[in-house]
Amino acid sequence: MSTSQGVNVLRWSALVAGIFYGFSHQRTITASNATAHAQAEYQHKADLIQKAKAEWAKKNLPPQSKTGSGDIITDPNDKNFDLEAYLTKLSAES
Question: Does 32 reside within a domain?
């Protein structure tokens, strides 16, 4: 009789240990997946911010100076019109 009681205690102990191990292992896997998901979401947002900054810079920052290449804006309504460069070009031509 004592042999079967010892076996039952061993079986129940193994069952409880297995349940505890499964629970702790599942928590580890879930935490790892949550961390990976949060990191991927953060990286995606950082990429979107970088793209938005590049588009904003392309839209709002003035283009590189083109006076060295001889291209001068002659339209006075243009926001990049430079009167001094235009007058210098006219005086050089005449």
Answer: yes
